[in-house]
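We treat protein structure as text, and this decision shapes the records that our systems exchange. The tokens are whole numbers drawn from a learned vocabulary of local backbone shapes. One such record is reproduced below, unchanged from the form in which we store it:
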Amino acid sequence: MAVSREPPPALGGRDHSRRVRLQGPQWVGIPLLFAVPLLALLGVFGESFTSAEAAGSDVALRVEYSTRYRYKQINAVQVRVDNVAGEPLDTVVVAFDPRYVRQFSTLMFIPAPQAPFEIVFTDFEAGGSRTVWAELQGEKYGTHRGTLEAYRTGGADTARVTLRTLILP
């Protein structure tokens, strides 16, 4: 009996092409499978920080804060206020925008606010500086905007910085 090298027609399968066929959503999903880890390695989803400065005729303001961090993570806002008036100032107020601060939870301010989100410094010596430290926990997803102001009570102008923070899931 002779042995045939080809299988009988009943056992042979159809000739299939070996091409990959993707459906509509797969054309989007497969590149994302490669893009997301690559973006994470490049730091796109991590924390980022910035600093901003503003000055008025009486006070100068420098703020360092996080522009991007994750939900439920705690981050700090550090504020430095300088007396640039050339004379002692009776009262200087550092005021956080309530619309901005209310987007966060677990709020802690050092020194403690005397009015909602307002820190008051008295007897501010000429050429001196004071620091405010605030810790804010990311509570709501999205981009949050607000201002931070420093001004002399009864002064002519205000040093104002715009804050913008993105809370990621």
Summary: The first helix runs from residue 24 to 41.
